[in-house]
Design brief:
Elements: H1 10-26, H2 44-62, H3 82-97, E1 106-107, E2 112-113, H4 114-135, H5 147-166, H6 182-189
Antiparallel strand pairs: 1-2
Helix pairs in contact: 1-3, 1-4, 2-3, 2-4, 4-5, 5-6
Length: 202
């Protein structure tokens, strides 16, 4: 896909995000699984399991099906190689939201606009891939091709931010310079410090 053209469908936006997330996960080693992440409640393994579960359930929501986020299975610790599994599920998520009608109408138990629900999936894939990169000393690929993703997510975070913070899903907004890059400002809006490093146990 030409990332320089105007992009506005969730399938295309997820393709962009997935193309950055998968290499981050493929580069992880088994030794990385117990490393802390910028999400205090998750180590790398826990965050991978969370993200895998999110991708499976949001794929159901793209088809206006029922989802269940109450319990997160251990997909990393069982079954096929978790790196391959992540790539498979990530691409399947993007494909699901590229289907005709996926963005139309309402979906989920709370009957939210499907476009907003899909943007929540996009947010999870994008920021958690950044979390995993930061946790393991990788550089998340923040280039011009990511711009349409960040633009979409800026609007979603504005709409969801207060609710997400009240539910503990986002921490308080982190102050960043006014001239900070767009991705840094997005991360800060979700309560992440884009310039902090993760302390590893010694």
């Amino acid at each position: 896909m030409d990332e320089n053209k105007n992009v506005d469908s969730l399938g295309e936006l997820l393709d962009i995000s997935v193309s950055r997330a998968v290499p981050v996960v493929v580069a992880l080693s088994d030794a990385d699984l117990d490393r802390p992440t910028p999400c205090p409640e998750y180590d790398v393994k826990g965050l991978l399991n969370h993200l895998l579960h999110v991708m499976v359930e949001f794929r159901k929501l793209a088809a206006k099906g029922e989802s269940d986020f109450t319990k997160t299975p251990d997909r990393v610790g069982s079954g096929p190689d978790w790196r391959e599994l992540f790539a498979t599920e990530a691409h399947a998520l993007a494909a699901a939201w590229a289907q005709p009608g996926a963005e139309d109408g309402l979906t989920g138990g709370m009957n939210m606009p499907a476009r907003l629900v899909g943007s929540m999936a996009l947010l999870d894939v994008t920021v958690h891939a950044w979390d995993l990169a930061r946790a393991t000393g990788q550089q998340y690929p923040d280039d011009a091709g990511l711009a349409p993703v960040v633009s979409e997510l800026d609007a979603s975070v504005v709409e969801l931010g207060d609710t997400a913070r009240s539910m503990g899903m986002f921490d308080s907004v982190v102050d960043v310079p006014e001239d900070a890059p767009p991705l840094a400002r997005l991360l800060a809006a979700t309560g992440r410090d884009p310039y902090a490093t993760v302390r590893h146990a010694t």
